[in-house]
Structure formats: C-alpha cells, structure tokens
Design a protein that fits this description.
The chain has 16 helices and 11 strands. The chain is of the alpha+beta class. The mean pLDDT is about 90.
C-alpha cells in the first residue's frame, strides 16, 4: 500500500461541500472527496466537540492527522477525520455558531482576515492507495484511538455494499424510519448504530457477522425492514397499553419465540396490571417476559434480608425442618413457606430456613 503526506487547505476541502441529511451523502474537495463512505459512522460530535475544532483552527493549533484513500478514478474517500471535516465545513457553511468572548458568531460574522485564518489553515492528510482489503484494514487500525468505534461500526467497515447503504438509511439516521416507529421500544442511538445492531441481533439470533456476510451484496435491506416492522407491529398488538418498562426489552427474541402463539391481549393486560401492583415483584420489565413463559426468574422476586434469615436460623436452632438435620448458617438458605405463586409474601412469618439440598429439591418440584 502506497502512503503519501499532503497539506490540504480548509478552503479547498470545503469547496462545493454538500451534506445531504436525507441520504447521508457528504461530499467535499470540489466533489472529489467522499467524506462519508458506507463504512463510516454518522456524525457523533457534540456541540462542544465541533466548537473545539473551530477554536483549534482559529488559533492555528494542530489538528490530528487526517487519512484519505485514493480510488482508481482519482477520487478520494475519508478513512479518518470525518467528524473534524464535517465540523469545519459545516461551520464555513453557516450551519452552527461558536462562542467568542461570550458572543455567538457564525462564520460570516468574522472579519475577512479572521475568515482567511480559517480558510487557509492547512490539514495534514495522509493519502493511501491500495486494495479494498488493505484500506479497510488500515481504517480499523487508525480508528482504535479517538471516538472508539462500536462493534457494529467495525462490522459496517467490513461488509460495505448496497445492502449496508440501504440498511443505514432505514436504521442509522437521525429521524430514520426505525426511529419513527420504534423509538419507545429501543435503547441507544440510531447514529451510533444501536438500532441496526439490535435488529440484526434479533433476526440473526446473535449471529450478526454471518447475516451481514450473507446479505452484503443484496440490492436492499427490505428483508431486514420487513422483519423489524413485523416485530414492532406484533408488540403493539399484543401489549396494547404502553409503559416505560417496555423500552429496551429483547422484543425480537420474544417475537421469534411467541409470534405464532395464541395470545389474548386483554387477559395479558389484566395480568400485567396485577403484577405491576405486586410489591414482591422488583423487576417491572421482567413482567412482560413472565406473562408469556411463566418463569419467575424474570420478576426478581423480593428476597429475605440477612437479618430475617439469621433470626429464623436461630429460632430453628439450625435444624432443617425437612430432613431434620443440623447445619451451619452458611449451609442453609431462606425460602418462602407459602410460595409467591400461591400468595406467599416475603415476611418473617413466611420464612423457612432449609438446607441447600432440600431447598433445591423443593424448587425442582
């Protein structure tokens, strides 16, 4: 791979700069530089970060090195430096202002000589030429520092193509389609690839790498979108009353397991209301899994305090009431005499200390 160092002025970088928020296409350097190729992340800088880029430039302090790759048609792709590049070009194009001595100033508010300091600032750009695999390998290495890439962003760098471009339009843009219909059900941020990673995890059953490899050259991501839409539609139909506890649940995995089951939304809602009011239930999020499969582990039922267990141990004189054997305190476990499923509460009166063996056998019954 051939690598060459060049100095590029910001005014040349920003010539004919375009940032299409709808398609995600970002182009600069008079149309010759693809600032956001498919393997690149979305813009993630916060206001203070992008302002700091401009302050650094205005003071003629050095920015970190930029990395471009050169294509066969003599055009370029941004390997590293996208966030700083967009910050500089957006500022010159009046997208945001910066604080200068307590006043907000856009680029056009500066005097001509102040503008020239910014426009004539020289970036240190390493330009590389090589195979696609060499460039992607280098992309991974140079992105170890700085704003750390997520696992999904690294996978995006590996499986570029029409499928990924379409998937990112649907799942990785601000106000994207996935955000519009499911923001209340998903955690994370679309632009940090959290939505895309989530739906890929669901559809592939945790084999994201394999799924992306199989679909890399597909013309679109319609299969992924259809699946995602089906999941969200199913959730809204089955659980008709939205609660904040529903956000971030593994809905795809739940859908995969229960989509063909005959479920009564009215009965489920009545059961959920009862469980939400049960003081014994400490995991409200787990209620949605429990009403489907009946496994009490999702509820994180309230447990007995050490104070209660120690007092009960002394009351029983260390004797397990089932096997009648004596045990040390550390060898015994607190359990509900009347189970929670039959109305038992986590009270001292309902506590019984059992040896580990008897408690295990009782749980298995």
């Amino acid at each position: 791979m051939k690598i060459e160092l060049q100095k590029i002025k910001i005014k040349d970088l920003a010539r004919n700069y375009t940032n299409d928020l709808e398609t995600g296409s970002v182009v600069g350097f008079n149309g010759h530089l693809n600032i956001r190729p498919p393997y690149q992340r979305e813009f993630v800088y916060k206001d203070k970060q992008r302002e700091q880029v401009i302050h650094t430039i205005r003071q003629s302090f050095p920015l970190n090195t930029f990395y471009w790759s050169k294509n066969r048609d003599k055009s370029f792709e941004m390997l590293d430096g996208q966030q700083r590049t967009i910050s500089a070009c957006d500022f010159i194009n009046g997208v945001f202002s910066i604080n200068v001595n307590g006043n907000q100033k856009f680029f056009h508010n500066f005097t001509q000589d102040e503008q020239n300091i910014i426009l004539n600032y020289e970036l240190q750009v390493y330009i590389c030429e090589g195979t696609e695999s060499e460039k992607l390998s280098w992309f991974r290495v140079i992105n170890i520092a700085g704003e750390k890439l997520t696992d999904q962003e690294l996978l995006n760098a590996t499986y570029t193509g029409p499928w990924l471009s379409d998937a990112k339009l649907k799942f990785s843009k601000n106000q994207c389609q996935a955000y519009q219909i499911a923001q209340d059900y998903l955690l994370g941020s679309p632009i940090r690839q959290d939505y895309l990673e989530t739906v890929l995890k669901w559809i592939s059953e945790d084999k994201i790498d394999t799924y992306m490899a199989e679909h890399q050259n597909d013309f679109n991501a319609n299969e992924l979108w259809t699946y995602f839409s089906s999941v969200i539609t199913w959730v809204k139909r089955v659980f008709t009353n939205y609660r904040k506890e529903m956000k971030g649940l593994p809905w795809g995995s739940i859908y995969n397991k229960f989509k063909d089951a005959e479920l009564d939304p009215v009965a489920l809602e009545e059961r959920i209301i009862t469980l939400m009011q049960d003081e014994e239930v400490t995991s409200r999020k787990g209620i949605y899994l429990y009403v489907l499969d009946g496994d009490e582990k999702w509820l994180s039922l309230r447990s007995f305090s050490d104070k209660y267990k120690r007092a009960k141990y002394e009351e029983q004189q260390g004797i397990c009431p089932v096997c009648k054997e004596h045990f040390e305190y550390e060898e015994m476990q607190g359990d509900h005499n009347i189970p929670w499923s039959r109305g038992g509460k986590t009270t001292y009166e309902n506590l019984v200390m059992l040896c580990s063996k008897c408690n295990r056998e009782k749980s298995n019954q």
